[in-house]
Every structure is written in C-alpha cells, then in structure tokens.
Amino acid sequence: MNTATTSSTVVNEQGPALVGGDESPILSVKNLSVRFQDNIAVNDVSFDVSPREVLAIVGESGSGKSVTSLAIMRLVELSSSGKVTDGTMKFVRASGDIVDLRTAPETQMRTIRGNDISMIFQEPLTSLNPVYSVGNQLAEVLRVHKGMSRREAKKGVIELMERVRIPEPTRRARQYPHQMSGGMRQRVVIAMALACQPRILIADEPTTALDVTIQAQILALLRELKNDLDAGIIFITHDMGVVAEIADRVLVMRKSEAIETGPVEEIFHNPQRPYTRKLLSAVPKLGSMNGTDSPALFHLDREEAS
Which of 36, 40, 144, 148 has CB 3.0 to 4.6 Å from 152, enough for a Cys bridge? Predict the structure, then answer.
C-alpha cells in the first residue's frame, strides 16, 4: 500500500467528499448522477483523480461502479435509455484546456476517447476482433489516433508490446486473440489503451478473470505504467485484496451512492461504515475456516448497509 495521512470520510447528506491527490487533479467529478429511464444508477457521486494516483472504486455488483466509468467516457449515452442527469466532469487535457465531459459535443468526445482517456475492460475477448491479428488491431489504433504510416505503426506495435512485457513481440503480433492466453490478451488490451499515452486510464475489473499469478503481474505493470505516463488510474473492482495492492485512495459505493472515501490505509485500518467493514470481512483469510464444516452465511442487515 502507499503512504497516506488523511483520514477516511463518511459521505453525508450534503454529498460525497472529493477524493484527490497532492497535485492538481486531472479529472474532477462533482455530483454526478445517471439514470436509465426511471432507475437511478449513480446518485450524486464526487471524486478527483490526480497524476500518478490510483483511485479504486469498490462495491458489490450493481452499486454503480461501471456506470460511473461509462459516464466519464460518455458511453452511457449510447444506450437509448441512459442519461447523465446532473453534475460536472471537468477534465484537464494535455494542452491545459479544461473540458466538461458532460456537456462537450460528441465531435470533441471522439478526440478525447482513446487519446486522453482510455479504458481497459474485464474480458479482453470482447475488446479484440477475432478475425484480425493483434498486431493489425494495435496498428489500427496508432494509424487512426496518431496518424502514423504503415511502417511507423508496425514499429510502434512492437514497441507497445515490449512495453507491456509481451515476449517475442514480432511473433505475437501475428497471432490472433484466440491463440493467446488470457493474461497475454489482457496485456494487448492494455497496450491498446496506452497507445496514445492517455492522461486517465479507466480499468474496469481488468484482473477478475485471471489467475492470481497473472493478476499480480498485471497490477505491477499498471503501477509502473501510470508513473511512466504521469497518468491517473480509476480502478473499478469488488476485490478488496486487489485494492490493497494497487490503490492510493478508495471510494466505496453502494446502491448507486458513494458512502465512504479516503486513503487506502484508512479504509482498511479504520473503516467508518458497517458496509465497508463487511466488504473487508469478505476477503478470504488463511485459516479462517479452522474448526468449521462449511463457510458461514454472509449477512448484511439494513442497519449495516448504511
């Protein structure tokens, strides 16, 4: 874990406290709300992300974690019923220009997605085209977003694959997604996300489908890359063990709302909300089943959910 001194904050009725690092934030989200018709998916969520900072957004399935990330990319609006109904999302581009992602025209958002803000999804097979080699897919990103020639893109593909620690990159670039392991495919997706050196990298449960050894390698790679790029990372997960490995700060969500936020050490050692304590207690501990025949039921009372 990383060193931090600020205590955790319980979100109150006036709205969630901001989460940010020591430097000026790259992204400042305030009072974000998202609806799908009559259903509230995200309600009044606020946070900041600074350079070289990893903000982990944690919570159970359906808490609003992934919808928050899709709102930042303005991808939530691709659903006919999805809509950002309130809040601001101020993003500082590399040029220094400040853009409110909520109100930016779609033409501008197309220049931001992939270039300034990139996303890594949980299952790489859904992000990669099965009929093209991974090298061709990486080259397309470089040619479309960076304006490279075919020769430049071919060289850039090898450099990207080396950067994410893919062995034998020349041979691997000729392979198709199904010919690679899950860990290798995830590295390709990370390389694709990093192709344009984004300022914000959103990782939506990128290690969930991987075994623990590969998971550790991917987390170490992300830590290294965010420092190399001076990028901020929004890491979405339900796994508090992963949070302990990679996060600087944590935002806990439940039922579309942010209920607690703070430095990772404070969240782990002094959680303020019963729900946060329940999330931490769900992390398996060696020897915890000694003397028992079966796992205990996981109870979450209404009083504990607050």
Answer: 148
